Each structure stands twice: as structure tokens, then as C-alpha cells.
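Hi, here's the filled form for the chain we discussed.

Project: internal
Contact: R.S.
Residues: 249
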Amino acid sequence: MRAMKSLVAEAIALEEEEASYFLRVLRDARYAALADAENFRSVCFALEELGMRLRGENLRSLRKYKTILQDIVPTKLKNEYSEIFDLVVSARNEAAHRGIFARNLASKSIRLSIIVEAGLQSMTTKVKHIMSQNVIFAEKFYSLAKVREIMLENSFSYVPISLEDKYYLIPDFLIAQLWHDKKSTDKLKYNTKIDDILDKKDLLKPIELLSNAKKSAALNPLLQAPALVFNGTHAERVVVGILSPFDLL
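And the returned structure, exactly as it came back:
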């Protein structure tokens, strides 16, 4: 019994990098379930991976990880976690998950993921742990239609762009204005470079943060616009992520 308690205590003490990794795994799984209700199992797989790490062994059953996963859940959410966890695990073994049943199950799985994510979020302290990686930039040779497509496909409110070695953010409302402007011909929408359409005074200058900065340092700056996250000094900097208020939720 003593050995078991020691194992559990050690497993719960995730390093910040690990908490950050599992936070991204769960978020990706949640987005997959949002895109397709039948992908609710992606949340189950993510929870199994986390449970395996916390428990220190493969128990080959999500249900067996219930208690150890609950240990990292915020106290006020533990009861809700327990109820939803049992529902999702039980429904996971059903043969068919379609229509209204699938959508309801996906909704429950997404809520379960958000609850566990809250625990992981509390284990992180730096910008790099919560930022969105793989930043998608608009290139200056893209057309207006291409930039609009990127925004729609990814539900972006802003898309970063580099012009003359300076970074800017293209806001969605600007793209909407240009797209619906009476002067916007098909040639301007599809065959003209965005660099020839945009006026820099209409673009936003992003807040710049370093990846090792504390999360608390990002709260006030993000009131205006998302921040680009850099790894390194301003002399030799590389964009490694983007941080929006959504990432701090």
C-alpha cells in the first residue's frame, strides 16, 4: 500500500513541460470533437494517455484512470467531472454514435476535456506553455481571397504578416470590408497581391512577448490584440507562437 501511495504522489507532480504537452493534446482532441461529433473518442484517447502518465503504467482501460485524473481536477469541478466521466466512458462502448446522441456525447466529452484542462492550466506559469504553436502567416503575395480562406478555415480573427521586416496583424473586419467593398472586383479579390491592397495604417501592430515570460505578463497587453511570441532576444528572434486571450481561458 505504501508503494502505491508513493507512485501516485510522484505521478501527479507533472513538470510544466509535461502539463503543457497534455494541455495541447486535450485541446486538439476537443477541437476534433467540435469538428465532428463522432470524434468524441479522441478525447478519450487523450485522457487515457494522460492517465497512463499519471498512473505510471498502462491499465488498458480509461475507467481505471478515473481517480488519478480526478486528483488534478480543481476541487469545485470534481463532482461534475465524476458524473460526466462515468457517462462518457459508459457511452464509449456503445456500438453506434450518430445523430443527436453523438452530438450530446461529443458535448459531454468536450466538457470533460475542459474540466481536466483547467487542472493542467494551473500547473503552467509561462507563455510558452499555453501559446498556440505553428503560427500561420499570410504571405505578401497571397490574394485577398487566400487570406479570407485562411481566416474562415481556422476561425482566426487576426492573421500575422511580415512586411519590410516588420510584423503586423491583419484583422478580420478589414478583410470583410475589402471583400464586400463595391470596388472589389474579381481581379482584386483573386489576382491581386495582398501587399498591393493593404494600407499599413489599417493594420495592427502585435504585442511582442518572449516565450519564457510569465503568463501574468500577458494579461494586460492582450486587451488590444493577440501577441506574437518570440524565442530569443530582439537581435536574433524567431516567432515560435501566438497568444490570444482565448489561450488564457
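Let me know if anything looks off before we file it.
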